[in-house]
Fold this protein.
Amino acid sequence: MRQHCFYELILFLYISCFVINSLLFVPQLFRWTPKNSDLCFFTLFHSLFLICSAICSRFVPDLFMSCSVFVPRFVPRFVPESVPLIVPLKHDDKTTWLYNFTHHTMKATLRKRLIDNGTRYSLRLDIYPPAPHPETGRLTRFVNLGMLLHVDPKTKEARLQNKETMALANATLTKTQLQLHAGRYDFLITNKPADFIEFYKKHTLERNISLTTKKKWNVSLRKLQAFLKLKPDQPLYFSEIDKNLLENFRTYLLENFAINTAGSDFSNIRTALIHAYRNDMMTVKITEQVKAIQPQRTKIIYLTKEELNKLVKTPCGKPLIKRAALFAALTGMRISDVAHLKWEDVVFDPTGPCVHFRQRKTKALNYLPVSRQAIKIAAATDVPDNPSGNPTGNQTDKPADIPAEKRTGFVFPRLIELHTQCKQPHFKNWIRDAGIKKNVTFHTMRHTFATLQLLANTNIKTLSEMLGHTKIENTMIYAHVVNASRRAAADVITIPMGGE
């Protein structure tokens, strides 16, 4: 009996608020615009109507749903835009609250937020009006995408990374907007099983590494997918990754690839897992349970001074490739740094020329002193090739018409394009014509610089700084190549023997 009276009381409150709220529409019939005080008065009764509507839908859902047709679907023009008309819908067995925002159309907007001391943007979606969570019913406005942008991208890789990130963010925005129009809010559920492959791709995209290194990371992921026989769009949840999976993948790499290649691929997967653990994507640091693949020391190929002199005297089908290779042998720079070197990066100090550049591989700044001979080779003018592509026997580089101090633009334009030509491998042909039987690549010039410097008794710390190594251990590999010092060290200790 008491419960029945309570229901009647609630229904009476609802009907009363409905009548009062309906009276608010009478002034609009006479085209009357209320004052601020009247506006507050009308807004108050409108809010009471909404509260009573919610109470009725909670305690007398069946009776309320039969009367819900009387709920007005319009709001007078003097009601503030910030007051949405919320129509409670019938909830399911789990008493989940669902709301139909009829006055406002839900819209998702991409927003940026400064993080990392103003060096990066964090992207998130701004949903207005806020969307109800499918499980808790809590209104949610902001959804973090976990994507980052460089505030001031100065390099080509950073600009490309921003472009790819924005393309991914806009795709997510479009997908979210379609879900909002369909009345689906599943994207607010964050307790879905996390996909390692999706996390790995996003982590690769956000890492501050070169494009070549990103390609290697993607190759490592494809090897993992091939090992697990996963389709490109098939997920790999973090809960499925355990010690046995990593050990089997480690064995798979060692059996099918060279040990250094396997070590590099396995290291990329381990790095991503460590990053996932630091971001609370995993509860156990599983990488501590599986050993890394230790790389083997490879044979370093370098050229002697006599072989360099042969290359100087040997003509090349593309003189620019010859000049760039000799410049690398005199400076120790990588081909990626040589190809992107500009005359604006060359500083002509009174003590000698220097090159101030940012390394493409490590992104570290390097202030490298170079010889005047290296600048002279870089500033030389190439002799045009014959129509047949074969150089003449007396082909030489002409002196530069413009002084190096006044030049602008790339020092070696189109170097990568000319070096990677498959139909006319000018670099390989140049090495062959010089009579050198070694497997020489452009990177061999960097090894040649380091080895000849050590043979000239250059300090290992100084050499490490000139090469731009972040760790001196990377430079120590060249110390094992220099047999002269090891030979001398072997004869340092002698003991007197009988008869000597």
In short: The chain is about 45% helix and 10% strand. Residues 156-181 form the longest helix (26 residues).
